[in-house]
Amino acid sequence: MPTMSSTSSCSVSSETPVCGRKPSGLYIHVPICRSKCRYCGFYSVADQGMKSPFVKALFRELDLPLGDFGSFDTVYIGGGTPSLFHPREIEGMLQHLQKKFSIRTGSEITIEANPGTVSPQKLAAYKALGINRINLGVQSFSDAFLGFLGRIHSGRQAAQALAWARRAGFQKLGCDFIIGIPGQTRQSVRQDLNRALEFSPEHVSCYMLGFEKGTPLYRARREKRVIAMKDSEVAALFLSTVEFLEEKGYIHYEVSNFARGSENLSRHNTKYWNDVSYLGLGPSAHSFLGKTRWWNVRSLSRYCELLDSGRPPVGGHEVLSPGQEILEALYLGLRQAKGLRIRAFNERFSMGFDETFGKTIGLLEERGMIRKKEDALALSLSGMLYLDSIVACLASCLP
Q1: Which of 23, 27, 234, 250 is spaced 20 to 30 Å from 267 by Cα?
Q2: Which domain covers residue 174, as residue numbers?
Q3: 309-351 residue pLDDT tens
Q4: Phi/psi of residue 183, nearest 5 degrees
Q5: Domain membership flag for residue 203
């Protein structure tokens, strides 16, 4: 099986040179699952019969003009459950990407995988394709919690998948967990993390359980069949998790993300948080270029139908206003542990940061939610729990 390389030339139209531009990120949304998890708000369908129509439609999307993104140095295959696809199908996707785009040597190529859908042979085949980073959706090693979430794998399968990934040669191994599951305790979360650390993952993500509208878990909570943990309890679990992983040598570089050394940060995800262009392919995928954001239709059948007729599958777009740009800069900067760089913010928006936000920042500092040091403004750990509210407070200062 061929590996990814930078030998293919980019066929995206370009009227101006892209010298000096940061490489873009490329995301493929694979919208197929074996079954839907109770908490998941990402778009996918539990219909494996749609695998072939999706791949054909994806290749048609790649034949369309897609914008001037220059070169790419990250490719992220997410979903959904990409690991439901045979390595030959993933190989076909990667080959089409190479034909269409300039993908740089040394690019970060990531695939998401569900532990219940992999085998030693499949993982070795993915690695042979040039995929060099894998994120396993462990969520928990507790079968009771996995059952509550509606996951298709067991705790034993999760540990097995981590071992297989290491055996396949993956040196960039990521584990995803969910905290805030009703019934979780500080001890049970640490048991999960300790089990994962037996495999020395380079990256750990710990997401707080959400009850997104439209999900089975949202309906169960509304009907009082599920009682969510109190905010204070989830906060305690979050703080305990950060403390534990930092003690184990992980860098807490974003609200939910930890890396074993700066070289193991997710290069792809950091593009989303640092105003770098990215192209999304597949139903519901989002793209960002310059000041424009657009997104594909959130329907696999409609996505296929549009592309079958030669039409782009775009569901909508927006050109960011100056106010929206400021809000996004605040939100994306503050969700990172390094914080927001004040001098760069002032230069970008031609405004006085201290004059605009100083009073509110002072109040937030008194409450221990935020800290300002030299050229950076960053949230404290407790502040990270209230990111949305803090950004809303800062937004109220804008003229």
Answers
A1: 234
A2: 24-273
A3: 999 999 999 999 999 999 999 999 999 999 999 999 999 999 9
A4: 100, -15
A5: yes
